[in-house]
Amino acid sequence: MLSSLHLRGAPAFDAIRGAMIGPLKPVNFVFGPNGSGKTTISRAFADPATFPGSSLSWGSPGQTLDIKVYNRDYVAETLRQAAHLPGVFLLGKSSQEVLDEIDALSGPKGSIASGRTRITTLSESLTAKDGEISSSREALKEAAWSKTAEVPAELSTMFTGYKNSKEKFLSHLIEVFEANPSTEDEFSDLTKEAAAVFADDASPVQPLPAAPPLDLEKIKGFDLFAIPVIGSADVRLSDLIQRLGNADWVEHGRHYVPDSDGACPFCQQKTPTDLAEQLDKYFDTRYTEHLDRLKAFRLEVQAWATSLSAYLDLLPDRNGASSHLDETALNTARAQLRAEIEILMRQIDNKLAGPSNVVALDAPAKGIALIDAAIQNANASIDTFNSRLKNRATARAALLKRCWVVFARKSLATQVGRFEGEMPPLLKAKNGIQSALDAANADLTAKRTRLSALQNQVTSSKPVIEKINKLLASVGFHSFRLRESSTVKDGYSLERENGTIASDSLSEGERTFITFLYFAQALQGTPQSPGATNDLLAVIDDPISSLDSDVLYAVSTLIRRIVADISESKGRVRQLVLLTHNAHFHKEVTYKRQGDKDAGWQYGVVRKRQGHPSELVLSAENPIQTAYAALWQEVRRSAADPHGPAAGLQNILRRILETYFKVLGGVDDTAIVAKFSGDDSQICRSLFSWVNAGSHSIFDDLDYTESPSTIESNLRVFHQIFIETDQEGHYSMMMREDTTTSAAAQ
How many domains does the chain have? Predict the structure, then answer.
């Protein structure tokens, strides 16, 4: 930011030679009459080298700003004739080379047009490919949606959250089968798990008890099957019986001896008298005991078989166990066991029928093993069920995921397979088209950027016209606007409010106004010259000249916009120096409305001095104020120093009362005087008598000298008049007793 300008110079610019203009703030308003040196100051800012020995002082070497100056020199250089204005940007290359490249880019058959055509073609191809992808997705979506009815009712909760959106349903389905290429699960398996996971009333299931055990070796009498059970060896017949090996035959036949009347029951020959005795001795008590043990063995095996059958009959009826029991495996095991038990019982019966025979018993091991396996599998399923029931939330999520995988990979195997076959080439083609489209868009953007850069190198009125007309519209100015000249290339024409084109020369005011608009739009945007910085110091010297009120308003609005941007660090302008000779314009741009930010304002006055260079005085207070405010300033001075010079104070008080009560308020002075008594009434009447006398010149009372006591009395009664009329607020504001509102009165 610029701190100050040290101005030296040649005799031609002696108006303010030797001055130091500063220290400067972000916003600097300088007032001075014509001929006081304002233009000299602006020229010094534009080119300090014009003034030998002059220099600019920057607040910091890293805070230098580019300086843009608007003054009469700028107007003369910029506006050469009514129908022609140079463009914002100067030509940097050969015109023909630039124009040829512009034509190659922007012509009807140029690269930009062909680029747009290629983008259109690629966009259409991309749309068509998207249609093919959409059709494939739609086919899968409808097929999958219809298949939901085939999912077991116990698992239908898997579709919760997807029933109201087919698209959401399809997206999840695709996500599932892309993450799960295959599965070993079946819905029948998952249905069993669902009983524990999905059923709110599910309860733990007790494990199945083991089948009744059978250990043949531990049953009393098992050892007799491995030896012949025969009679006593001490009997005379034992040798014959053992030699013939017919003990079982003899044992069966001996029961007929008592009924054969002495004849042999086998050969009908006369039997020895002691035959029955010999047979009884042979088949003694030990033999009988062995037979009893064999019979008991059979009974115990039969009891086990009966118990096992009852056990197996009850298994499917156990609470909750049936769904875990593989009935097919169980039935197979029972059939195997039944066959093996029959074999075992025949073997036992054979031993009982021929005790002397050695019989090897075949335990029903395979059938029992099958039964045990079925029970173990059922109990494993029950354990899993109970575990899922205990951890229902986790198990539910896992089961739902598996349900979706089975649905995708089993129920929709054909449709999903078709989709997976169609989609890769479609997506590959789409990606190729998209890549080509992105490249085409990037190429077109680069060509347009190049075209813009080339156009910026060519002097053209069109962009400037657009910007200036936008400025005019933004400040509500409609008296005229600019348009391209129909006779001069890149020239300007002025279009009046009624739509006619001005054919005569521009007036002085129009020249000033248009060049200021040209300057204002040049402050916007990014820097165009190589090496130029983005931030600017704008110096504006008398932007109004012979202007009517609406033009003055437009210019002041644009300047106030620059001031507001400086306070908010917006735009390119970081510092402003405004010089003007027009008091009304000065008041318009310096008036602080409610909400205006103070960007660091200061005010200056350039004063001419007889026989000496002009001087520039800077101040935090605005030195240019209204006549009414100036009158109050004298009242404040007299109130602060009653013993000081007070020539014309009573006339000043009279003019304030006349302006406020008679002109603005329409108040009856007689009613006001009636509110006072004694000396104060006389003083009040005298003040209003001055009003009625119609004196309007401070010089009317030059031969009247007021004493300090008179001054104090007049000021006291003057104050009391505002109190009595309920206008003390205005008095306090103008006397700056309320510093908040005093600025607004200025």
Answer: 5
Alpha carbon separation from 143 to 138, 405, 570 (Å, rounded): 9, 16, 60
Predicted pLDDT at 91 = 24
pLDDT band at 553 (very low <50, low <70, confident <90, very high): confident
Structural domain including 520 reads 2-79+508-619
104 and 20 together in one domain: no
Q: Is residue 319 part of a domain?
A: no
Q: What SS3 state is found at 739? A: helix
Q: In this structure, are 667 and 692 located in the same domain?
A: yes
Claim to verify: residue 541 and residue 604 sit in the same structural domain: yes
Read off the tokens for 213. Answer: 């055990």
Give the model confidence (pLDDT) of 93-125 as tens digits: 344 566 577 778 877 788 988 998 999 999 999
Q: Which of 114-118, 206-210, 267-271, 662-666 has the highest mean pLDDT?
A: 114-118
Residues in a beta bridge with 31: 580, 605
Burial of 464 (0-12, 13-18, 19+ CB in 10 A): buried
- Answer whether residue 491 is part of any domain: yes
Residue 151: count of CB within 10 angstroms of its CB: 19
Nearest to 345 by CA among 292, 310, 275, 298: 298
Band of pLDDT at residue 656, cut at 50, 70 and 90 = confident
Q: The whole model's pTM is what? A: 0.42
With beta carbons less than 8 A apart as the criterion, state whether 29 and 620 touch: no
What's the CA dihedral at 151, 156, 159, 163 to 10 degrees? 90
For residue 696, being part of any structural domain is answered with yes
444 in a domain, yes or no?
yes
CA–CA distance, 153 with 158 (Å, rounded to integer): 10
- Look at residue 415 and tell me whether its pLDDT is greater than 70: yes
Q: What is the pLDDT of residue 249?
A: 56
End-to-end CA distance of the chain: 29
Q: Which helix (H) or strand (E) holds 602?
A: strand 601-609
Q: Token digits for 688?
A: 């209003």
**Under a CB-based contact definition with an 8 Å cutoff, are residues 706 and 650 in contact?**
yes
DSSP 8-class letter at 487: S
Q: In 3D, which of 667, 684, 646, 677 has the Cα closest to residue 726?
A: 667
* Alpha-carbon span 355 to 251, nearest angstrom: 10
Size of the chain, expressed as the number of residues it contains: 746
| pLDDT tens digits along 46-57 | 888 877 777 788
CB contact at 8 A, 571 and 524 = yes
Q: Token pair 């199945």 is at which residue? A: 208
For 46, 303, 545, 603, 678, the CA distances from 516, given in Å and listed in that order, are 16, 123, 11, 22, 62
Tell how strand 27-31 and strand 601-609 pair up.
parallel
Give the helix ranges, DSSP H, for 148-246.
Answer: 166-179, 187-197, 238-244
Six token digits for residue 413: 């195997």
Q: What is the DSSP string of 535-583?
A: -EEEEEE---SS--HHHHHHHHHHHHHHHHHHHTT-SSEEEEEEEES-H
CA-CA distance, 211 to 469, in Å (whole number)? 102
CA nearest to 578, candidates 70, 29, 5, 23: 29
